Amino acid sequence: METKEIIYASPKSERIDKFLQNELSDLSRTNIQNLISEGYIKVDGNTVKTNYKLKESNVITIDYKEPEELDVVKQDIPVDIIYEDNDLLIVNKPKGMVVHPSAGHKDGTLVNALLYHCELSSINGTIRPGIVHRIDKDTSGLLIVAKNDKAHVKLSEMIANKEVKRKYYALVHGSIKHDYGTIDAPIARNPKERKEMAVIDEGKPSITHFKVIDRFERYTLIECELETGRTHQIRVHMKYINHPLVGDPVYGPRKTLNTNGQSLHSKSIEFNHPITGEHLYFETEIPSYMVDTMAKLDK
Fold first, then answer.
1. C-alpha neighbours within 13 Å on the C-beta side of residue 198
2. Distance CA 89, CA 86 (A)
3. What is the C-alpha separation between 227 and 204, in angstroms, rounded?
4. Measuring CA to CA, which residue among 136, 142, 147, 138 is closest to residue 92?
5. Backbone phi, then psi, for 64, in 5-degree steps?
6. Which carries the bigger pLDDT value, residue 260 or residue 67?
7. Average pLDDT for 168-196
8. DSSP 100
9. What was the pLDDT predicted at 64?
10. Between the CA of residue 46 and those of 39, 58, 158, what are the distances in Å?
């Protein structure tokens, strides 16, 4: 762990994330905002928000680990590519596969597999090439991957502007009585547990729409549509309304069905091609692990 102290000397107030972006050339603004949200960056010993306005003589303390250098290797790993052109791929990621390498998962990831198959964009560097958006290790389903920088930049803008429609299947605890619902609750890093997200008043706006697909005695299969794309959004929102995902080891109950992780599947993606403008829509069936689980449940 490396610790760094910076004294803010300007009489003019400035946002902390903007100021540090100029001071810390090795970190992006997103990295800085994440460190602030996770409590690794403090002002005068106190945690602050990413939009905190610095005042003269404030002491900024930064605690962060130096990133571990990883050599991302190309690996001949089977991957289900359901669409590919010169600019992008649509991949159906299996449950249990990590999207990109990290300190705990140096190989065997989707990125390792895709690098063996083709060239990917360089926007996210050597560790996350081509990755426009992510899904969790134990979430299965569709993912967009960029093959060049031009497509990557445009796709990122489209996601930020809510021009990419994403829907998920989720099997949740409890019988949801109403057929449709919208959860509008802000999400941020859990101040009590850095590895978790939570509904917090000061969080970022987060909206999830859902509709019931099938009901069981103590469980419900729903389709969720994301209006925003926060980390763990569906998992956090469903816990918030007391219908946590089946098998979720973080946000679910201790007594849950054994599905080796949350029962969540990215079922469809709809968007206009970032280069050609062609309308694209892709959809997958409910994965076998969810079908097998539901076959054992009582209606």
1. 13
2. 9
3. 13
4. 142
5. -150, 150
6. 260
7. 92
8. S
9. 61
10. 9, 11, 36
Helix (H, G, I), strand (E, B) or coil at 212: strand
Question: What region, left, alpha or beta, does residue 238 occupy, with left being phi > 0 and alpha being psi -120 to 50 degrees?
Answer: alpha
Q: Which two tokens stand for residue 73?
A: 């290797």
Segments in the chain forming alpha helices (H): 16-23, 29-37, 110-117, 149-160, 233-240, 288-295
Q: Tell me the residue ranges of DSSP E strands in 155-291.
A: 165-173, 180-184, 187-189, 197-199, 207-215, 219-226, 264-272, 279-283
Top pLDDT among 282 and 37 is at 282
User: Could you give the CA distance from residue 186 to residue 202 in angstroms, rounded to a whole number?
Assistant: 7
Q: Which of 164, 160, 276, 179 is nearest to 223 (CA)?
A: 179
pLDDT in the model for residue 299: 60
SS3 (DSSP) at 272: strand
d(CA 136, CA 138): 5
The 10 Å Cβ neighbour count of residue 281 is 9
Q: Would you please indicate which residues are annotated as catalytic (active-site) residues?
A: 136
Handedness of CA 11, 59, 35, 201 (dihedral sign): negative
In this prediction, residue 193 carries a pLDDT of 80
Identify which of 240, 234, 207, 210 has the alpha carbon closest to the alpha carbon of residue 223.
210
Rounded-to-integer distance, Cα 221 and Cα 251, Å: 17
| Residue whose pair of structure tokens reads 């063996």 in the numeric block | 116
Torsion of CA 18, 24, 27, 31, to 10 degrees: -50
**CA distance to 120, 126, 130, per residue, from 123 (Å):** 9, 9, 7
Per the listing, tokens 């946002």 go with 15
SS3 content of the chain, % helix, strand, coil (to 5): 20, 30, 50
Over 60: is that where the pLDDT of 267 sits?
yes
DSSP per-residue string spanning 190-207 = -TT-TT-EEE-TTSB--E
